[in-house]
UniProtKB/TrEMBL annotation:
Binds 1 zinc ion per subunit. Belongs to the peptidase M36 family. Its cofactor is Zn(2+). It is an enzyme of class 3 (hydrolase). Its EC number is 3.4.24.-. It comes from the Eukaryota. It holds the Pfam family Peptidase_M36. InterPro entries: Fungal_virulence_M36, Peptidase_M36, Peptidase_M4/M1_CTD_sf. GO terms for molecular function: metalloendopeptidase activity; zinc ion binding. It is found in: Secreted. It comes from Dispira parvispora. GO terms for biological process: proteolysis. Zn(2+) binds at residues 405, 409, 435. This is Extracellular metalloproteinase.
C-alpha cells in the first residue's frame, strides 16, 4: 500500500498488511527469474560465483556470502549474498544465487545497474552517532501518527471505516529501537537509517526510518494470517484430516534424525525441543500435559461443549501436528542449517534457541490464526484463535490444515532469502505467493490415496463452519473453481489471500498432474520417493531455497520448473507446464505492472513434441 496518501489496510483481526513506500524506489536486485533467462544461463554460462558478482560490478569488499545451502537431491548449492558498505551489510540488499555441482552459476540475482553500481560520495559516509541523532521513539510515534491513516477492512474486504491510529495503535510503549542499519533507497543511494520493532496486538512491525525517525522508508509485518471466513453455511460435523480421526491419542512417532532429543522434555509432557505450548488466558503460562501410565496422551474431544472444556485435547493435537510437521519438513531440507525451529541441536548447529511458541485458544480476537516469524535463533510464535461461526464456539487448534498453513509461513519465511533475514516475503505480491504456498502445503497433508483431483478441498472448513475460508474450494473442476492467472488483474484479487487463492489453484493442477502420473504416498517421510505428492513437496521446498526476495508469481513458477529441469525430470517438467498452462500460466502468459495479467495456455516446444 502507498505511503503517500498514507493508508494501510488492516483486516478484521487487526493485522496490518506489509507495504513498501510507493514514493521511493526501494532497492531490489534484478532477477533473471524468467525461465528463458535461467535456461540460457544454465546451458551457456560458465561463471563461478565470484566471477558472476564481479560482472555485476562488485568488488570483493562490497559483498559478503551470508550463508550457503546444499541441495542433496539436485547437487546444487544456494548462496545468500548481501551488499556491504563500510564493513556492514546493507539491510535490504539480499541476493540469492544458485550454482551447480561444478560451482558455476545457473540462476540468480544481479544488480540493476550491472557494472555501474557504486555508492554516491557524500551519501554513504558513516554519520556521527552523537546525541543529536539518538533514537527518538516519540518522534517515530508522531511520524506514524502523521503519515498513517489506518483503514480497517471487514472479513470480506468491505470497508469498515477509518480508525484513528493515535487512539488505538501507535504509542511509544509499543515501539522499540532495534539498531542502526544501512538501507538502500535505490541502487545508487545508501543511507544510514534506524530499525524499529513495534508490537500492536499480534502484528509485529519491522520498521525502517531515516536517522531522526522522521521519514518512513519501509514497514513489514512479520505476522502472516490464515484469513477470515467467507461463510458458506456448509457444516462439517467434526475435525477432519483424511477422514474423521482422533488426534488426541498421541504416542509420539518421533523421527530420530529430525528430532534427536525427541518431542518431549523430561518428564514426558507436551513441551519439548521443537514446541512450547502457552495458555494466553492464564498469564501465558506454559501448558505441560502428562501422558497416562502407558505413555499415551489420551484426552477426549467433545465438540458439543465450549473449547475451554477440551483444552487439553487441543494442546495434544497442536503439539502432535507441529512436531510432526517439523520432522516431515526436515526430510525435505528444512533442517538446522536451513533455519528450522528448535531449542538445541546435538551437532552444535547455528540458529538454535528458537522452538515455536504456540498460543492456543486465544480469545482477544476470533476467526483467525497467524504465525510471527523472526530470524533464525529467535523464537517464532503461532497464534491459534477460537472461531465464533458456530454455537458452541470451535477451536482452530483442531483444524490441522489451519495449523499446517500457519507453520508453513514459518518455513517459507526462513527459506526464501535465507533464515537470517526477514522481509523477503513482504510485498503485496510475494505475501500472496506465500499464502498460496501455505494453502497448497496444507492440502498436501490433507490429501491421501483415496482422494482425486475433482473433489473439493477447503481450508479451515470445520472451524469456520463453511466450505472454506477462501472464496472458492480447491478442485480441478472449473465449474466449481473457475480461477485463472488472468483473474489477478481484477481489483478484488489484489490482496494477499486472494492472490494466494489464485496461485494455489494453479499449483493444485501441477500437484495433481504429479499425483496422477506417479501416485500418492500416505507416508510423507519418504522425501526421496517417486510418488507425486512427495516429489511435488520436494520441488516446492528446493524452489523456496533458490527463490529471490519478494518474488512474483512468475518467479515462483520458474524456480519450481528450474528444480525439475536441472534434475532432468523431463516428464515431470512437462507435467508441471501442463498444470501451469491449464490455469492460464503458460509460456506466453503476461504479467506487467499496472495489473496487466494475460492468460496463455501454451507449453514449451519440447513438451509439445511429447504430447504428439
Amino acid at each position: 500500500m502507498p505511503l503517500a496518501g498514507a493508508r494501510i489496510s488492516v483486516d478484521s483481526n487487526g493485522l496490518v498488511e506489509s507495504f513498501p513506500p510507493e514514493s521511493i524506489t526501494t532497492y531490489a536486485a534484478a532477477s533473471n527469474g524468467d525461465f528463458e533467462g535461467f535456461r540460457s544461463l544454465a546451458e551457456g554460462g560458465q561463471l563461478t560465483l565470484p566471477q558472476y558478482l564481479a560482472e555485476s560490478g562488485l568488488q570483493d569488499n562490497q559483498y559478503q556470502i551470508a550463508n550457503t545451502l546444499e541441495h542433496t537431491n539436485s547437487g546444487m548449492r544456494t548462496h545468500y549474498v548481501d551488499l556491504v558498505h563500510n564493513g556492514q551489510r546493507v539491510y535490504n540488499s539480499r541476493m540469492v544465487i544458485t550454482t551447480d555441482s561444478s560451482d558455476n552459476v545457473v540462476s540468480g540475482d544481479r544488480l540493476n545497474t550491472m557494472k555501474t553500481w557504486k555508492p554516491q560520495s557524500g551519501m554513504c559516509g558513516v554519520p556521527s552517532r552523537s546525541a543529536e541523532i539518538e533514537p527518538d521513539i516519540n518522534q517515530l510515534t508522531q511520524t506514524l501518527t502523521n503519515f498513517l491513516t489506518v483503514e480497517e477492512s471487514g472479513e470480506n474486504g468491505d470497508n469498515m471505516g477509518l480508525r484513528d491510529s493515535t487512539n488505538s495503535s501507535w504509542s511509544a510503549d509499543t515501539i522499540q529501537f532495534a539498531g542502526y542499519v544501512y538501507f538502500a533507497i535505490d541502487v545508487y543511494t545508501i543511507i544510514e537509517g534506524m530499525q524499529w520493532v513495534s508490537t500492536v496486538g499480534d502484528s509485529v512491525l519491522d520498521i525502517i526510518t531515516d536517522r531522526r525517525g522522521e521519514k518512513l522508508w519501509q514497514m513489514d509485518n512479520l505476522a502472516k494470517s490464515v484469513g477470515s471466513s467467507q461463510g458458506y453455511g456448509y457444516n462439517v460435523m467434526s475435525p477432519q484430516m483424511r477422514g474423521d480421526i482422533t488426534t488426541n491419542i498421541m504416542q509420539g512417532p518421533v523421527n530420530p534424525k529430525a528430532s534427536p532429543y525427541g518431542w518431549h522434555s523430561k518428564p514426558s509432557a507436551t513441551m519439548g525441543n521443537n514446541v512450547i505450548l502457552v495458555d494466553p488466558r492464564n498469564g501465558n503460562a506454559t501448558i505441560s500435559i502428562q501422558p497416562n501410565a502407558k505413555g499415551i496422551f489420551d484426552y477426549p474431544v467433545d465438540v458439543t461443549k465450549q473449547p475451554q472444556q477440551y483444552q487439553q485435547a487441543t494442546a495434544v493435537n497442536v503439539f502432535f501436528w507441529v512436531n510432526h510437521f517439523h520432522d516431515v519438513m526436515y526430510q525435505y531440507g528444512f533442517d538446522v542449517n536451513a533455519g528450522n525451529f528448535q531449542e538445541s541441536d546435538p551437532n552444535g548447529g547455528k540458529g538454535t534457541g528458537d522452538p515455536i511458541v504456540v498460543n492456543i485458544q486465544k480469545t482477544d480476537k476470533f476467526n483467525n490464526a497467524n504465525f510471527v516469524t523472526h530470524v533464525d535463533g529467535k523464537k517464532s510464535v503461532l497464534n491459534l484463535y477460537l472461531w465464533n461461526k458456530n454455537t458452541p464456539y470451535r477451536d482452530g487448534g483442531l483444524c490441522v490444515d489451519i495449523v499446517i498453513h500457519e507453520v508453513t509461513h514459518g518455513v517459507t519465511s526462513r527459506l526464501v532469502g535465507g533464515p537470517d533475514v526477514t522481509g523477503c516475503l513482504s510485498s503485496s505480491i510475494s505475501s500472496g505467493v506465500a499464502e498460496g504456498w501455505s494453502d497448497i502445503v496444507a492440502l498436501i497433508f490433507k490429501i491421501g490415496v483415496q482422494n482425486n483431483r475433482n473433489q473439493e478441498y477447503g481450508i479451515g472448513e470445520w472451524a469456520s463452519n463453511s466450505k472454506s475460508v477462501r472464496k472458492y474450494t480447491y478442485t480441478s473442476n472449473e465449474k466449481v473453481n473457475p480461477l485463472k492467472f488472468g483473474d489477478l488483474a481484477k481489483a478484488e484479487n489484489q490482496k494477499p489471500h486472494t492472490i494466494g487463492l489464485v496461485w494455489a489453484t494453479i499449483l493444485y493442477e501441477v500437484m495433481w498432474n504429479f499425483n496422477d502420473m506417479l501416485g500418492i504416498s500416505d507416508n510423507l517421510f519418504e522425501s526421496a520417493g517417486r510418488t507425486g505428492n512427495t516429489l511435488f513437496l520436494r520441488t516446492l521446498v528446493e524452489g523456496w531455497q533458490k527463490q529471490s526476495c519478494n518474488p512474483t508469481i512468475f518467479n515462483a513458477r520458474d524456480r519450481f520448473l528450474q528444480v525439475l529441469k536441472y534434475q532432468r525430470l523431463d516428464q515431470e517438467y512437462c507435467a508441471a507446464w501442463d498444470g501451469f498452462a491449464k490455469r492460464g500460466m503458460g509460456v506466453s502468459a503476461v504479467q506487467q505492472y499496472g495489473n496487466r495479467y494475460e492468460n496463455h495456455y501454451d507449453v514449451p516446444q519440447e513438451c509439445k513434441r511429447r504430447q504428439r
